[in-house]
Amino acid sequence: MTLKNQKVEIRTITKADILKFNNGEPYSNSLRGLAVERDGELLAIAGVMHSSYLQVFSSMTDEMRKYPIMILKTAKRLLQIMESYNQPLYALASDDEPTSEQFLKHLGFELFNINEDGRYFVWHRH
Residue 91: what pLDDT? Predict the structure, then answer.
């Protein structure tokens, strides 16, 4: 089957999606988010976690990298969720993703802090 024949869709995230991407562990906070799946196979999750400060997160499989347009479409949908918040949103650039900083900047995040835990970015609603 070619990539063109496979249906990739963005939908609302479920608890099962979180458990799959978090080694069977639930998040301790509520969230609003999205999941991307192809023919029932979970490829990515993204959202805003409601912790003491609002955290934007995402995680994807290597398989998801085959769909760069879907990555951008998912980011656009995530931005719609982010726009519903009046408070600043924070994200940690991934050390495992070589383009994570550039992608965060593309979404409108700005570098906020660098410490031993990583590179933190902040996003404000426009």
Answer: 97
